[in-house]
Amino acid sequence: MSLVIPMVIFMQQRMAEAGNAEDAKAMQAYMKTEQAFYGVKAPERKAIFKQAREHTAITSFIEYKRLVLWLWSGVNREEQYLAMDAAEYYKSFRILEAFPVYEEMLTEASHWDTVDKIASNLIGPLVKEHRELEDVVRGWRQSDNMWLRRASLLVHLKHKQETNLSLLEETILMLANEKEFFIRKAIGWVLREYAKTDAEYVKSFVHRYQEQLSPLSQQEAVKNL
């Protein structure tokens, strides 16, 4: 029998033991979701994941994939957080073959707490290393799923001097007219982050396209300039 299943059960049991009903209600209310929470905060969750790693070694990509997706399919929100923790932790398995795993998670993600981390921390680095994935990201821009459209922006978030500026510009301008708060916020966020690499470019971009960009996007983009 695979050791991954006992590893997942180990974490689920520890989460259930550490959970707090009042914290669970507060977390659920904050995220405006019907999904259940254990009521386990990030430091406790990370300590449980550390215990699990001491309990079981993940030594192959198949084990990695199973661990991440089994956690992701859990009933409670913190299991999704653990899935992202695990996906990010095992760096040697964050390879091109992992992209379908991350994309599956992304398409099932329902709010910024999961979407943003998957897009910027897991998918973004793969897109930077494997530029052929940009074709997939281009498709997200026209998705009916608003979170995929947001992800098409946030995959660029940590690319710094390796940012594909032509693709980023094109994506921003495609989405600039959207009324959705989370899209407008993401446009400003990705520009503000790129300003740490090239502030003059961001100032110029915001000036050139001030008619297309929402006030929120502009405000966020130049917040620290």
Helix content range: 55-70%
Number of helices: 13
Instruction: Please give the largest β-sheet.
Output: none
- Which word captures the global form? globular
Give a brief outline of the structure.
The chain has helices at residues 4-18, 21-31, 42-55, 61-72, 77-89, 99-108, 112-129, 134-140, 146-154, 165-175, 181-194, 199-208, 215-221.
Give your account of this protein's structure.
There is one protein chain. This protein is an all-alpha fold. 67% of the residues lie in helices and 0% in strands. The protein contains 13 helices and no strands. The model has no long low-confidence stretch (mean pLDDT 96).
Blueprint (SSEs and pairs):
Elements: H1 4-18, H2 21-31, H3 42-55, H4 61-72, H5 77-89, H6 99-108, H7 112-129, H8 134-140, H9 146-154, H10 165-175, H11 181-194, H12 199-208, H13 215-221
Helix pairs in contact: 1-3, 1-4, 4-5, 5-7, 6-7, 7-9, 8-9, 9-11, 11-13
Keyphrases for this structure?
225 residues; mainly alpha; 13 helices
